[in-house]
Structure formats: C-alpha cells, structure tokens
Amino acid sequence: MRRIFLPILLALTVSCSTTKLAVPERFSSQATRYPVKGLQGWMINQHLKFGNYTTSRIKRGWGVMSNVRYNNIPMPPQDILSQIFGLETMQAGKNEKAKIRYTLTNAHNSAEIFGIETYNSENIVVNARQIPVIGGEYTTLLNSSYLYKAAIVPTDTSGTGIWSMVMARNYDVSRDTARRIFDASYIDEIGYATNGRDTIKIRPLNLNTFEAKSGKVSQTWLGIKVLSGYELSTADGVVGIIDTIDEAMWFYNEQEEKQQFILAAMGCAIFLKQIEKL
C-alpha cells in the first residue's frame, strides 16, 4: 500500500487566538484529524480523549504494580521497561526526571504505556558581579542529553507485539555551528518505535513558516524555527502527524486498525512528555 511522501510536510499556523499546523491537502484529504482533549487545565485526575480513544487516569510515577503479567505474575513498570530495553540500558538511566503510566483503549484494542524521561546537562557559570551592566551570573550550556523511553504493551499482542519507543536529543557546544543570535543550535536527534519487526520513525518538525487566520502563509519572525510537532512514517511514507501546537493527531486512513492504535499510543506518549529542553 502506497503512502504519501511530503518533502516539507507542514506549515506552522499562528494567530492571536488560534495556533495550528496547516496540513497539505494531499495528506489531509486522505487522513483524519483527531483533536486531543485533556491536555489543558488541572493535571490532577488527567485523562486524554480523542476520537474513540480514551486513556485511564495519567499516573505520574510508578507506585503500584502493573496489570501486565509474565507467567501469571504481575510486574512493576520498571521491570517491564528492563525486559523491553535491556537491563544495561535501564541501569544507565538512574537520573530520571519524570515517569508516566496509563492505559489507552478504544472499541477493539487496549494497551498499557509506561514512559520515563531523563535529562542531564553540563554548564559553565561565569560570575559577572564585577560588571555592573551584566551583574549576577552568566550560564552557558556545554552539553546536554535528553532521553525518553516508552513501552507500549497491548493486551493482545498477536499481530503487533510489544513496542518500544525512543526519543533522544543531544547537544554538544563543540559541534554547534550556530554563530548568530537567532541561528538554530546543532542538535543530534533520533526517534523511533519498533516491535522488533516493524519500525515507525519519529521526525521533529522544526518549522519557520506559519499561516495566518486569513489563510496567508508567511515566515516566522526572523525566520526562527519552532518545534511544531512530529511526523510519523514507515518505509512506505507518512502515516501520522502529531500536532503539538494545536493539540491534535492526524492518521492516514488506509492502514490497519492495529497500526493506527500503535500510532495513537505513540501520540499520547509524545503529548505527555514533561521535559522539553535543548
């Protein structure tokens, strides 16, 4: 089945009251948009809803056992992630900053999702108290690393298996080519989800164009690129768009229901990230 390839997938839409991504018609005409509810307001008893999908209460931290069982024995979330990502990988991630856990369901599918974010950085601090114009301290980032790992464990793994999702960003000042004040910093980024057989790539959409409410497309101020969402693609082409600006998901219509469910689980995991750093 042929997918749609989009060289420049989206344009950022910005206005005083509405901010969204303008999806090209050649994709939107063959896809369905799902606005995501539950991302604003109080995070206590938070649930996400979109289309016929709904999540359980989003739990921050892992204080209880999971419903996932191995040999009929319930396993804690950290052990599940260790099984999926490998013990060595988990041992390296002891400085976790945030954890999430929830269940996603629709009429025919259900899965537990566990996520963990880690962020580490090294800074140089210059004490500028003797310079009245500056004053205080000046901090420069030398390097940083961000890692988000999520496990998607369907209730019925037949045909889909268990999925692992990884999103990583690394910055090293020695490799940074940005010289002017508004230049984009050089950042190594990688993102994907896999069940060991199939792979879905995650590409961040850093865009410098926007569409006004009138429909006019323009550049952002000084051409600054803004992280506006994520493109999900297989070897056949784009299958989904995660619009973090307008809080919506787009799914290509001509795909199996179980694959779309995995895309929905990935989208929820992306929306629920808590650490957004360089």
UniProtKB/TrEMBL annotation:
Keyword Signal applies: yes
Keyword Signal in record: yes
PROSITE patterns: PROKAR_LIPOPROTEIN (PS51257)
Source taxon at top rank: Bacteria
Endpoints of the signal sequence: 1-22
Alphabetically ordered keywords of this record: Signal
Entry protein name: Uncharacterized protein
Protein species of origin: Chitinophaga agri
Origin organism lineage: Bacteria, Pseudomonadati, Bacteroidota, Chitinophagia, Chitinophagales
